[in-house]
Amino acid sequence: MKFHSFLIKYGEIGIKGKNRYIFEDALVRQIRFALKDVDGEFYVHKSYGRVYVDCDGEYDYEETVESLARVFGIVGICPVVRLEDKGFEELKKEVVAYMDEMYPDKNKTFKVEARRSKKSYPLQSMQINCQLGEVILDAFPEMKVDVHHPDIMLNVEVREEIYLYSEIIPGPGGMPVGTNGSAMLLLSGGIDSPVAGYMIAKRGVSLEATYFHAPPYTSERAKEKVVDLARLVSKYSGPIKLNVVNFTDIQLYIYEKCPHEELTIIMRRYMMKIAEHFAKQDGCLGMITGESIGQVASQTMQSLNVTNAVCTLPVYRPLIGFDKRDIVEISEKINTYETSILPFEDCCTIFVAKHPVTKPILEKIEKSELNLAEGIDELVEKAIDTVEVIKVK
Ligand code: ATP
Ligand code: MG
Fold this sequence. Notes:
Layout: E1 5-10, H1 20-35, E2 43-47, E3 50-54, H2 61-68, E4 74-84, H3 88-102, E5 109-116, H4 125-139, E6 144-145, E7 152-158, E8 161-165, E9 169-170, E10 182-186, H5 192-201, E11 206-213, H6 220-237, E12 240-246, H7 248-257, H8 263-281, E13 287-288, H9 301-308, E14 315-316, H10 324-333, H11 337-340, H12 347-350, H13 362-369, H14 376-385, E15 388-392
Parallel strand pairs: 5-6, 5-7, 10-11, 10-13, 11-12, 13-14
Antiparallel strand pairs: 1-3, 1-4, 2-3, 4-8, 4-9, 7-8, 12-15
Helix pairs in contact: 3-4, 5-6, 7-8, 8-9
């Protein structure tokens, strides 16, 4: 079947009253972005309170659907056949042909649902429903009408052209990115943080990201892996500005001056501080991490408290109550898993103590950090000044 358009169904954003157009415009923008690299000419537009993607000419159907299925805010994608209005008799034939081609197995129930925006059309919606229902029954005696729970809901929209559709391909839900401000994702090369970014972006939040690397302890390939992960997340979230911070000197300094069992937690506090600096500089309204209670020593309730204490922006931890396997499941679904498990060390795995504290006490950690007083400010400043910014699309 050759489809000429997609009707885009959106859920939550329909209920936003006067703000509705803001959401629809953001949705249109995100759809355009998602289709930018897909083969074909697309015209994305709002019409009669709905969003359509018209694809006149040749286009790659599979790739188009795949790309649309990544746009937050979309709950359903309906492939539409658009017909020229050549009179009702012609429409009957087209509808029979449509049903025949779409549903080779005729052992199905159906309902016709007509909507008439072109008021000059000679038949009213109810008449269209009845008469098209009849021709379908005549053409395919195995088919039956079920007005309550039909297998096939055949929508017929009469406008300047006639739109036929009956299939709904599920979209990801959520809200269009760009409708809820932006947040700073602490992105490592692991499984969790890309999933965390995906989940917050799904609520309409644009992403920025910060990655801390520690050359030569972490390799260039580890960094490339993070760039790749950012690129995979950006397929959903739109472009991501990725700050790559050289963390080596800070890490070595902490290693030299602080108890080794506190290394990770103190490092995590400096990561949060630096990421927050970039977040505030760019007007982000929060930070995002992939932390989950109890997953590792630095993610016990006590550790999370101590890490959190350095931040003034809210820190969003969408995976906080998730088990690893739930997180893995999402990472597989969003296609980050295979990249996340590539075996390049990230900077946390190099400097891990044998027995890291699992119940750090804030006052004690702050006391240990006094050992850093002499040189840390300068190192932090240098790390900020030498940040490498990568625009990921
Ligand atoms: P992930 O799978 O996301 O790497 P993890 O299980 O390895 O997480 P940690 O290393 O304790 O857990 O990190 C917890 C969170 O801190 C990460 O989800 C991420 O948000 C942030 N983080 C850790 N290391 C880095 C890093 N090198 N750069 C940026 N953020 C980091
Ligand atoms: Mg990690």
